[in-house]
Amino acid sequence: MTGPIRPETATVRLSRATLRDLPAEVAVPDYLDDETPVGVVHIGVGNFHRSHQAMYLDRLLAARSDGAVAICGIGVRPEDRPLLMALQEQTGLYSLSLFAPDGTVDTRIIGSLRNVLLLPDAPDDALARLCDPEVRIVSLTITESGYVEDATTGRRAADDRAVRVETADGLTTPQTAFGLIVAALRARRTAGTSPFTVMSCDNIQRNGAIARASVVETARLVDPDLADWIDGNVAFPSTMVDRITPSPTPSQLALVDGVLGLRDKAPVVAEPFVQWILEDDFPSGRPPLEDVGAIFTDDIGSYESMKLRLLNGAHQVLAYVGLLRGHRFAHEAVADPVVRHWLDVYWRELALPTLDLPDGVDGDDYLRTLLERFGNPAIADTLERLATDSSARMAKFVLPVLVDARDRPGFAELTAVILESWVTAVRSSSSDLISSGVPSDVHAAIAGGSPLLSAVDWLRPLSADPALSLAMTAVRETFDALGPSEGLERLLSQAPGCAQEAS
């Protein structure tokens, strides 16, 4: 999705022909006539990909770096059609506007996305593009739920309906990202073309391993020998990506229209901060992304843990405590001293003490950067968005911190506030976006049908802690007596330890 639909105010549309009409302060790609090959096929052409990976490749193309390549984008879901049609009309061009905390907006036109395809509409063209020997990387942003094999969730390719259908047909007409990848690797193997690298850019720890499992096990349903060949010959580097990229608000869309002086049907807005950490495992070659700020490392795990625990985990604390305090936006919540204090407690008493930071990274500096990003009013990131798919996000981002912090002073009392804030926010929310991502058994447990720690699968690692159960009961009673908002304020005086300020 590109955000809310706004009225057709501008009649002139973004295109190659209208680039010359843009104001001088809007940077435009001057490399569009270069004979740059498409070297990356990206599956999942959403806002995040276009604010992140496509932007990095735009930088390389603008610098005319040796090894710079363009992108072909592919959508696999019918609901991708409106965005892809808009991008097709604009020959892949779109605006990226960075909204800084001081109110300044930096807008540029991105030209690295050379063409886009929708798999259901053009399966042969999509397969041909992946089979092109110039394509060295197939990258993915399909969200965590798009992966069909994941041992941590119990998801199996053999249980996925679409995978079963396409593999029963021998992948003659791929329907999924992984069916398409397997079909292309099979064709490249047959033709004697070296395999491309598969690069997940989704916000999942060990995303390379999960992408590998999804590809290999999809292949195994068609040809076990092909599956073994892929497992032994195709690289699946892990990556860590970071940039807050919300759906544009109506006011942001109007501002972008005003800056451009014409209509962009596929605009992207994001924060200025961006980060990309990659394992350097690209045997078929790769663009020199380090020239434009990406970091290659053999210690991807420490970067993943830092982001998932300090940023994504803190987003969950911010969301539920903030919602209970009556806030809608992240910047409002982080400006509330009560919310800020609980955020500091999570960081200082639970997360940082149990984290090995990457070499050269200062924890205090990182937290200061996070606070600046969370407090950016121009981004207007909603707490509702942060709370989407809450059960899975709490399990992925917060539970590992809590498990590792069980021996920390005050663990039970601090953890009880975090968990009961989540429970209360979900139980009291009228948002379909928040409630729809919570499984029925979790809803039943939250509603009081059974003990939470033993009834919710992902909380069972904490179920043997009687002190935590007692502390959760005490927090719940405080919320019931005073209301969650005042209860969170009252509980500050009882919180163990003294959280240091992160600013």
UniProtKB/TrEMBL annotation:
Domain Mannitol dehydrogenase N-terminal: 39-290
Pfam families in the cross-refs: Mannitol_dh, Mannitol_dh_C
EC number(s) recorded for this UniProt protein: 1.1.1.17
Reaction(s) this enzyme catalyzes, per UniProt: D-mannitol 1-phosphate + NAD(+) = beta-D-fructose 6-phosphate + NADH + H(+)
Swiss-Prot/TrEMBL GO biological process terms: mannitol metabolic process
Residue ranges of every copy of the Mannitol dehydrogenase C-terminal domain listed in the record: 299-415
Top-level division of the source organism's lineage: Bacteria
Keywords annotated in UniProt: NAD, Oxidoreductase
Family listed: Belongs to the mannitol dehydrogenase family.
Name this polypeptide is given: Mannitol-1-phosphate 5-dehydrogenase
Organism of derivation: Microbacterium pseudoresistens
